[in-house]
Design brief:
- The complex is a heterodimer of chains A (631) and B (323).
- Chain A has 631 residues and is α+β, with helices and mostly antiparallel strands.
- Helix content of chain A is 30%, strand content 19%.
- Chain A is built from 17 helices and 22 strands.
- In chain A, strands 1, 8, 9, 10, 11, 12, 13, 14, 17, 18, 19 and 20 form a 12-stranded mixed β-sheet that branches. Chain A has a 4-stranded antiparallel β-sheet with strand order 4-5-7-6.
- In chain A, a hairpin with a 3-residue loop joins β8 and β9.
- In chain A, α14 runs antiparallel to α15.
- About 7% of the residues of chain A have low confidence.
- Chain B has 14 helices and no strands.
- Chain B is globular and about 85 Å long.
- The chains are: A alpha+beta (631), B mainly alpha (323).
Chain lengths: 631, 323
C-alpha cells in the first residue's frame, strides 16, 4: 500500500485494460448457423394471450403462433388455414369445413377438428355466461359471423351453424387454440391466463421466450403443415418511445426489418444500399373529432352549440388544407382523408360526392350562410358568443402539434379563435368519454380533438365508433344519427358483399356530409427491410402492400435465404422502393435530429472538442506560468 | 454505538417507508385518467368490457377499501398484477428490470466514485496544478451536461460512427450462447457505453466535492503539525488528510447509492437499456398503477435504507458524532 495515488490509478487502469482484452473478444457476435430474422417495432408486446392483447404486435405474434380457420392469401383472398376447404349449405346457414388431416400441435399432440370446435364453442359458452373472453377484442369476429352452434362429427370435419346468411365466417381473426392446453380455464378467467412460453400452436413459429419490454423470440415449427420460412428463428425487438434507437439499430445491421420510422428517417433509410423502403396505405386514419353531444351539460360539454349543427361542422372542412398537411406533417407519406373507411379497404372505401376543397373564402361563405356571422374579425355563433374553440391532442405523437398549428392559423383566417393544448393520453381519453356511472356535470369538456384510430381487416370496427350505441363506449364524437345506426345494423347483417357495400357507401356519404369528424389523412405504413440475409420478400396485397404486419403470417413462410452474401439492391416484387410522394419540403421535426447527418455531425463535434481541448490547455499553461511567476 | 440509537433509527426508517407506501397509493390514484381508458382504446371495446376490466383490477371498489387491500397485500409481499402486461405479477415485471438498472448504475457509480474521489483528492492536494485546472474544468462541464447528451455523443462516435460497440440493448437479441463466458462477454460489450456515460456524468460530482473537502482539510491545524513533525507528503495525505476529507464524500455516496434503483430514464432510453427507468416511463403512460406502486416502493425502501446505512457508517467513521 505504499504506492502513490498516481501509481494506484495507473495500476487500476492496467487491470481494467487486461480484463477488457480478456472479455471483449468473446463478445464478438458468433456467425449464426441458421439466420435469425430480427424485426423491430415501436410497440411493446403486452400479452401472449390472444384474447388480451390490444396491440398490432400482439396480433402479429399470435398470428405466427396459431392458425386461423380460413387464412388470407397474397391478395387478401380466402385461402386454406386450419381448414382446407369450406362449403356453405344451399340456404347459406350452415358451413362445413374440411380440417386438414395429419396436423400436430407444436408439443406433439394431434390437432383435429375437435380443437376448432372447442375454440368456437368457447366463445358460445362465454356468450351464454354473459361474459367476454378475456378483454373481448376477438369476440366481435365470432359475433358478426352470427354463429349459433358448432360440431365436429369426425376428426377432419367441422360443421358450423349460423343464424343468417353471411360470409364473415371466412374473415375471423380468431386463432384456433389447443383444447388440451386451454380446456381447464373457465370462460370468465380467460383474461388471467398468461399463456407462458413455450406457446403451443399450429402456426409456423412459436414463442419460446418473452422478455417484457425487450424482445420476444420465436422458433420455427418443424411440424408446420405449410411452407417453412428460411428464418430458423424470429426475434421481435420492442422500442417503445425509442424510434431513434430502432433506426440506429437498423442502420447498424442489428435489425433486418422495422415498422414505422418517422417520415424523415424513412427518407434517409431509403437511400441506403441493399435496403428496401416501402410506403404503403395504412389501415387507419387521423382525424379532428368534434364534440357533437346533443344536450346541454352543466359545467361541461362543448364551448358552443355550433358543434351540434352539421352545417357548421361541414363548413369547417373547407378551412383544412389536407394536401399541405400530408406534405408538411407526414413528409408526403399519407393519403387525403375523406370517409371513415380508410382507402386501405379497397373493397369498401368510396370517395364521397361533394368533396370539399380547401378554400377559406368558401368556408367563410358557408359559415355565413349557416348563420355564423362575422363582426369585424371575429365570428359569432347563433347564441351571439364569439367562437373560441379548444383543440386538444395527446402527447403521444410528434405530428399532432404541427397539425394543430396549421389548424389554428387557418381557422384564425376565418375569424375563429383556436386554443390548442397537448394533453396526456390517459386524461384525454377520459375527457372524451361519457361516464354514465357518475353524474354528468362537468363531463365532456372539449371542443375538438386530434387523434387517430387503427382498423381491423374488416371495416366494421371503424364504422361502429360513430353509432349512438358507441357513446360511453368507444365514441369520441358523441354523434348520434338514427339513419347511421340503421345502416350500421343493415350492413353488419347483409347477406352478400354487394348488399353490404351499398349500405356502407351510404354510411360513408352520410358521415362525410354530417362531418362528426373532419378526416385529415390516412397515415401510411412505412416499412424498411434489408435484403442481404433473406430474399423472396413478398407483400400483401401484391400491389402496394407490405410483407409483415398484414393479415396472417404468409410472408414469413415464403422467405428464402439470400442467394449470396453480397447485398443486392434488387427491388422486392410488389411494393416499390421509391414512394410516389410529392417533392416534400422536410418538415422541421423535433425528433430524430441525432440520427440524421450521422457521421459528419460526429466528426464536426469531435474536431470541435479537440480544438476546445487544445485551447483550454494553452490557456491553462499560460495561467500556470503566471502563477509560478507570482510565487 | 448504543443499541437504543440503532433501534430508534430502525423504527424511524420503517415508519418512513410505511408513510411513503400510503402516499404513493394516493398520489397515483389522483392522476387524471383511468387505466381502462388508456389501455382499451380499441374500437371493439364496449362498456361491459371496460367494467369487467375495472372489476378485475379492483378499481370498482371505493378508495379506502382499495387502500386497505393494497397495504395488506404489500405487507404480505403480493404487489399485485400489472395492468399493461395483462396478468403478469408485478414482482415478475420488476425482477426482470431491476438487475439491469442495478448493474448499470451500480457499476457507473462505483467507477465514478473511484475515479472521481481520486481525481478530486489529487486536484485538492496539488491545487493550481495541471490536473487541477484541466480535470476540474472538464468535470464541471461534463457534470452539467445531461446524461442523454453524453449518451448520444457516445453512440454517435463509438457505435454508429466507428461501429466498435452496439447501439442498444443488453444482449444481442435472439442470440444463443455456447458458453457462459460468451454471454458475459456479450453483456460486457453492450454494457460498456452506457456505463461509461453514467460514470462520466457522475465523476464531476465526486471530484468537485472531494477537491474542496481536501483543500479544507489541508488548512487544518493537525495537518500543519503533521508536516512540522517531518512526515512525508504522502504520509500526511494518506494518514491524516484523506480520512477526514472522505467524510462528506461518504454521505454523498450513501445518498446516491440509494437512488441507483431509480436509474436515469434518459440514459436507459438513449441506449434502450431495459431497466426500471424505461419501465417507469411506460407504466406512467399506461397508468399501470400496480407497477408504479411497486417501483416507488422499491425506490423508497432503497433510499431509506441507504440513508440509514449512511447514518451508521458516518457514526462509525467520525467519533465526534457518536458522542
Amino acid at each position: 500500500m505504499r504506492l502513490s495515488l498516481r501509481g494506484r490509478m495507473r495500476r487500476a487502469l492496467v487491470a481494467f485494460g487486461v480484463a477488457a482484452t480478456l472479455v471483449l473478444p468473446a463478445a464478438a457476435p458468433a456467425a449464426a448457423a441458421d439466420p435469425v430474422l430480427k424485426v423491430g417495432t415501436t410497440q411493446d408486446l403486452d400479452s401472449l394471450n390472444p384474447y388480451q392483447t390490444a396491440y398490432l404486435i400482439g396480433y402479429e405474434v399470435f398470428t405466427l403462433n396459431y392458425d386461423v380457420l380460413v387464412a388470407w392469401g397474397p391478395n387478401n383472398e380466402s385461402v386454406p388455414g386450419y381448414a382446407e376447404t369450406w362449403t356453405p349449405s344451399s340456404d347459406g346457414l350452415t358451413w362445413t369445413f374440411k380440417i386438414r388431416s395429419g396436423m400436430t400441435w407444436s408439443d406433439g399432440q394431434p390437432a383435429t377438428a375437435e380443437d376448432a370446435r372447442w375454440t368456437l364453442q368457447y366463445y358460445l359458452d362465454a356468450k351464454k355466461a354473459e361474459t367476454s373472453l378475456g378483454a373481448g377484442y376477438l369476440d366481435p369476429y365470432v359475433e358478426n359471423a352470427a354463429i349459433t352452434g358448432v360440431s365436429a362429427p369426425d376428426a377432419t370435419t367441422l360443421v358450423v351453424a349460423t343464424s343468417r346468411k353471411n360470409d364473415r365466417i371466412l374473415q375471423m381473426y380468431l386463432p384456433i387454440l389447443p383444447k388440451h392446453v386451454w380446456k381447464d380455464i373457465p370462460v370468465d378467467k380467460v383474461g388471467d391466463f398468461t399463456n407462458d412460453p413455450p406457446v403451443v400452436g399450429t402456426g409456423p413459429y412459436q414463442v419460446v421466450e418473452w422478455k417484457t419490454g425487450q424482445s420476444a423470440r420465436l422458433v420455427r415449427n418443424e411440424k408446420y403443415w405449410g411452407p417453412k420460412g428460411a428464418a430458423s428463428e424470429i426475434v421481435f425487438q420492442f422500442f417503445p418511445d425509442a424510434t431513434n434507437a430502432m433506426v440506429d439499430a437498423f442502420k447498424n445491421g442489428e435489425l433486418d426489418y422495422i415498422r414505422n420510422p418517422t417520415g424523415l428517417q424513412f427518407d434517409q433509410l431509403k437511400a441506403l444500399p441493399g435496403v428496401v423502403a416501402i410506403d404503403s396505405a395504412g389501415n387507419g386514419f387521423t382525424q379532428v373529432n368534434f364534440n357533437c353531444y346533443a344536450e346541454d351539460i352543466p359545467g361541461g360539454g362543448a364551448s358552443t352549440k355550433a358543434f351540434r349543427d352539421p352545417a357548421f361542422r361541414a363548413a369547417l372542412g373547407y378551412a383544412i388544407d389536407r394536401d399541405v398537411l400530408v406534405d408538411r406533417v407526414l413528409n408526403g407519406y399519407g393519403t387525403l382523408g375523406t370517409t371513415q373507411v380508410p382507402a386501405w379497404h379497397r373493397a369498401w372505401h368510396i370517395e364521397p360526392t361533394g368533396v370539399r376543397p380547401f378554400d377559406l373564402k368558401v368556408a367563410a361563405q358557408k359559415l355565413d350562410e349557416a348563420g355564423y356571422k362575422v363582426k369585424g374579425d371575429v365570428r359569432y355563433d347563433k347564441e351571439d358568443k364569439p367562437l373560441d374553440l379548444s383543440l386538444m391532442f395527446p402527447n403521444t405523437d410528434a405530428s399532432y402539434p404541427k397539425v394543430a398549428q396549421f389548424i389554428t392559423d387557418w381557422f384564425a383566417a376565418i375569424g375563429i379563435k383556436v386554443t390548442s393544448r397537448s394533453v396526456d393520453g390517459g386524461s384525454l381519453g377520459t375527457t372524451e368519454y361519457l361516464d354514465t356511472e357518475i353524474p354528468i356535470d362537468g363531463q365532456l369538456k372539449y371542443d375538438m380533438v386530434i387523434w387517430g384510430w387503427v382498423g381491423d381487416p374488416d371495416p366494421n370496427s371503424l364504422l361502429q365508433i360513430l353509432t349512438t350505441e358507441a357513446i360511453s363506449d368507444a365514441s369520441d364524437s358523441q354523434w348520434s344519427n338514427a339513419r347511421y345506426d340503421e345502416l350500421y345494423k343493415l350492413q353488419n347483417e347483409a347477406p352478400t358483399a354487394e348488399q353490404r357495400k351499398t349500405y356502407m357507401s351510404e354510411m360513408q356519404q352520410l358521415f362525410y356530409d354530417q362531418a362528426p369528424y373532419q378526416m385529415l389523412y390516412y397515415d401510411d405504413e412505412l416499412h424498411v427491410y434489408r435484403t442481404d440475409k433473406f430474399s423472396n420478400w413478398k407483400t400483401q396485397p401484391v400491389e402496394g402492400g407490405t410483407p409483415f404486419f398484414v393479415n396472417g403470417s404468409i410472408n414469413y413462410t415464403t422467405l428464402q435465404l439470400a442467394a449470396a452474401a453480397s447485398p443486392s439492391a434488387s427491388a422486392a416484387p410488389g411494393g416499390a422502393s421509391g414512394a410516389p410522394s410529392a417533392a416534400a419540403t422536410p418538415s422541421p421535426s423535433g425528433n430524430g435530429s441525432a440520427s440524421s447527418g450521422g457521421d459528419s455531425t460526429v466528426l464536426i463535434l469531435g474536431v470541435l472538442l479537440v480544438v476546445l481541448g487544445v485551447g483550454a490547455a494553452v490557456v491553462l499553461a499560460r495561467r500556470r506560468r503566471t502563477a509560478e511567476a507570482d510565487e | 454505538m448504543g443499541s437504543r440509537y440503532l433501534l430508534n433509527k430502525i423504527i424511524q426508517a420503517i415508519g418512513t417507508v410505511f408513510l411513503i407506501i400510503v402516499l404513493n397509493f394516493v398520489l397515483f390514484r389522483m392522476m387524471p385518467g383511468s387505466p381502462d381508458r388508456v389501455l382499451l382504446r380499441n374500437p371493439n371495446v364496449t362498456a361491459d368490457i371496460r367494467e369487467a376490466a375495472r372489476e378485475r383490477w379492483g378499481l370498482d371498489q371505493p378508495m379506502p377499501v382499495q387502500l386497505v387491500r393494497y397495504i395488506g397485500a404489500t405487507l404480505q409481499g403480493d404487489l399485485g398484477y400489472s395492468f399493461k402486461y395483462q396478468g403478469l405479477p408485478v414482482t415478475e415485471v420488476l425482477a426482470g428490470r431491476l438487475w439491469p438498472t442495478l448493474i448499470l448504475f451500480g457499476l457507473g457509480e462505483l467507477i465514478a466514485i473511484v475515479f472521481g474521489l481520486a481525481l478530486g483528492a489529487y486536484s485538492g492536494w496539488k491545487r493550481g496544478g495541471t490536473v487541477d485546472y484541466i480535470g476540474n474544468g472538464t468535470s464541471l462541464i461534463i457534470y452539467s451536461m445531461p446524461y442523454f447528451v453524453i449518451g448520444m455523443f457516445m453512440l454517435g462516435i463509438f457505435a454508429t460512427g466507428l461501429g466498435w460497440f452496439p447501439t442498444n440493448g443488453m444482449f444481442e437479441v435472439g442470440r444463443q450462447y455456447e458458453t457462459a463466458w460468451q454471454q458475459v462477454g456479450d453483456f460486457a460489450w453492450h454494457l460498456f457505453l452506457p456505463v461509461l456515460t453514467v460514470a462520466i456524468g457522475l465523476i464531476g460530482q465526486y471530484s468537485i466535492l472531494m477537491r474542496s473537502s481536501v483543500i479544507d482539510t489541508l488548512g487544518e491545524d493537525y495537518v500543519t503539525t503533521a508536516r512540522a513533525k517531518g512526515l512525508t507528503d504522502g504520509d500526511v495525505l494518506r494518514a491524516h488528510a484523506l480520512p477526514n476529507a472522505l467524510l462528506p464524500a461518504v454521505t454523498l455516496i450513501a445518498i446516491n447509492l440509494g437512488f441507483v434503483i431509480g436509474g436515469a430514464i434518459t440514459v436507459e432510453v438513449v441506449f434502450n437499456w431495459p431497466g426500471l427507468g424505461t419501465l417507469t416511463v411506460d407504466a406512467v403512460a399506461a397508468r399501470d398503477y400496480p407497477v408504479l406502486q411497486g417501483i416507488f416502493l422499491l425506490l423508497s425502501i432503497s433510499v431509506v435504507a441507504a440513508n440509514f446505512v449512511a447514518d451508521i457508517v458516518y457514526g462509525r467513521l467520525d467519533p465526534r458524532v457518536r458522542a
